[in-house]
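Suppose you are handed a protein chain with no further information: no name, no annotation, nothing but its sequence. What can you learn? This example shows the usual starting point.
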Amino acid sequence: MRLRFSTAAALAALAALAALVALCPRPASAQDLNVDTAGAGVLIDQALNHSELLENLWHLSDVIGPRLTGSPAARRANDWTAERFRAYGLDARLEVWQFGGTWTRGPIRARMTAPRTHDVTVASWAWAPGTGGATLTGPVVRIDASTPDSFAVYRRRVRRAWVMTRPPSPVWNGDGPAMSAADSQRQRDFVRSVFTPFRDADSSLRARMQQFSNDVPHLLQRAGALGIVVDAGKEHALLNMSGSPNRILPLPQIVAAHEDYVMFDRLLQAGTTPRLAVSITNTLTRDSVPQWNTVAEIRGTERPGEVVIVGAHLDSWDLGTGTTDNGTGAMCTLEAARVIAQSGLKPKRTIRFVLFTGEEQGLIGSRKYAEAHADEADSIQAVIVLDNGTGAITGQALQGRTDLEGLWRAVLAPVASLGADSVVNRTKTGTDHLSFLPYGVPGFNFNQLERGYNHTHHSQSDTYDMAIAADLMQASAVMAVSAYELANLPGMIPRGPQTAPTLVQAVKVSDSLLVKGKR
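A reasonable first move is to predict its three-dimensional structure. Written in C-alpha cells, the prediction is:
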C-alpha cells in the first residue's frame, strides 16, 4: 500500500523528529564547551567556612571503623552514608550487587624460633586460609618462582617450609642520604621485574606467564609448602594488605614487616636458615553474598536525564580504620553533595554521588555499577573520583584525553587560588573511574598532594589522626565546583573510545591443579 503525505503533514513530522533529536544527549566538540563559573564562589564559601566533613570522617573512621567488603561494618557504612545524604536533602538509595564470598580476619602469631627467638610483625593476606589454629613450624626458604623452569629448580626445597618467592623490596631509608639516579633506576627496575616482567613479550608468552603466576600458590601447595611470606614493602614495620574472593589462595599467605623480611633474606644469604612458627585463625566463605553501593543525587533542572557522577570508594582494608583509603574520598564526596545542596544553586544536569564498595578487591562495585547502567553511558557527562589520600587536590589527570585540556583548565579556573590548577596528561590506575572508560564515558581521578599516602595506604597507620582538615575542605570545594560546572556545560563532553569491559570473574587456575588428592 502506498502512503501519501501532505506538505503540512511532512513538515509536522520533520518538526517532531527534530524535537526528539534535540532531547537526545549529543557530544559537543571540546572547544565548544564554554564553562559557566557563576556560583563557584558560593560553593567555595560553603565548603571552606561551613564544613561538616571532619565530623563525618570521624564517625566513619572511629565509630564504624574498617569497612572490609562483605563485613557487617561495610553495610553499616552504606546505611549511615545514605542517611547522611538524605539529611542533606538528597534522594538516596542502596544499589545491590553480588560479591564472591566473605573473609574475616582472626588471631595471628608469628615467631622466629631460630637462630634466635623473635616475634615477627605479620598479618594474614586477605582471602587466604589460616592454619586452623594450629602452629605450623618450618624453615624459611627463598625461591625464584618467576618462571616454570626457575620454579622447578626449587620445587623440592619448599616442602614443610615458609616460602619467600621474591627478593626484598627496595625500601628507601628516608633518614639517610638522598637517592641517587642509580638508586632510582634500581627501584624502577625492581618494580618492572616484579610487576610487569613480560610487558614487552608477545601476547602468547604473556598469557602463559600470567597463567603460571595464577598457578604458583597451587603449585606450592602441591609441593607441600606451609605457606607464602611476602614483603610489606614499607618502612617502620608498617604492613600492607590486599586480596580478593576472585583469587582465593589455597594455603596461608602472610605479609611480613619489611624489616623482618630483609632480616630473613640476610640470614639466608649468610648461610643461616631462620625457622618460623605461625598460627592463624581466619574465616572464609565461598557463597556469593549481596553488597551495596550508596547512591544519592541532586536532580537537574533542565536535563535531568544527563548525569555527572561524583564518586569514591567506601570500603577499606581492616588493619587500620580506612581513613585515608578511602574515608577521605568518600567523605569529600558526601561533603560535595552537602555543599551543592545547601548552597541554593540548582544544577542543570543531575549530579549523582556514588560511594562504591568492593574497590579494594578489584574495582568490583564500580564495575558492577557501570555494567548495570551500561544503557545510560551516553547520558553520563563525566565521572570524577577522589582516591589518593588526605592531600589537597592539585588538579586533574587527563587520562589520555588531551582534547579536554582546555575544558579542565576552564573548570578549575575558579579554584586555581586554592592550588588546584594543574592539568596534566597522566593516566591514573587502580581506582573506580576506570570502570566507566570501556563504555566511552569520560572518567577522571583528581591528582592530590601525597601527604604520606604511601605510608598509610593499606596499613595499620591508616587512621583518623592522619587526616588533614584544610586539605580535605579544599578537596571538597574543588569537587563541588567541578561537578556543578560539568553539570552546567552547554553540551555533552565528547565520548572516549569504547572497548570490551573487563569481566568480574575469578582468576583462572590450571585445571590440573584443581584435581583433589593429587600431589
